[in-house]
Amino acid sequence: MPDQAPSGRGGSGSSAESGSRSAGRSDVTAPGARLPGDVLQLVRRVAALPRIVLATDFDGTLAPFVQDPMQARPAPEAVQTLRAAASLPGVTTALVSGRDLRVLQDLSGLADVPGVVFIGTHGAQSSRDVGSGLLTPAQAALLAELDTALQSVVAAHPGSRLERKPAAVVLHTRGMPEPANSAALAAATNSAITAPRVARLRSPEI
Questions:
Q1: Among residues 82, 155, 192, 205, which is most buried (max CB within 10 A)?
Q2: 91-96 and 52-56 as β-strands: parallel, antiparallel, unpaired?
């Protein structure tokens, strides 16, 4: 993600300002961080930079994978850490996810934190760009076709389910036993989602 100046934090400034900012991040390298020495050195070097982008995924990083995606919740310690990072001068904190932007904001526990940037739907949506991720009529029609095709897969493979996003439709198979899991994924692969205008993203049980 490009390192853009966050609203209210200013630009890179002079060397004197840079020193002030890095001092404000001293808690990042506080004793007891339990990091190996070489990693701690790298953290200190990064903390000394005048501007930093701290970006993280949500599922599998801040929150554990769960069978129902809407029940995912971030670890309280992770939320606390990101809140603290967002308050530091010169730091842009960002959440980057395949989830819908609004859902990501609602589940993150960070929607009320000024300056946190949310990137949803694999980069198609951004909290910094109102209206991002909107589809053309042709794209919306194609998405509807994909939805219909995957509904047929769900009907034929009990236990699979759909998650609908502004620019995508996702087939989830987490929790399904084998060989039913693989059969559902294969059916989705062989469905209309093989159209050349469609980008397919694969991850475990999705």
A1: 82
A2: parallel
d(CA 186, CA 189) in angstroms, rounded, equals 5
Q: CA 151 to CA 144: how far, in whole Å?
A: 11
pTM summary value: 0.68
Read off φ and ψ for residue 34, nearest 5 degrees: 60, 35
For 86, other C-beta atoms within 10 Å of its C-beta total 20
Closest CA to 60 of 14, 36, 30, 96: 96
Is residue 92 within 8 Å of 3, Cβ to Cβ? yes
Cis peptide before 6 (omega within 30 of 0): no
Cα separation, 143 vs 146, in Å, equals 5
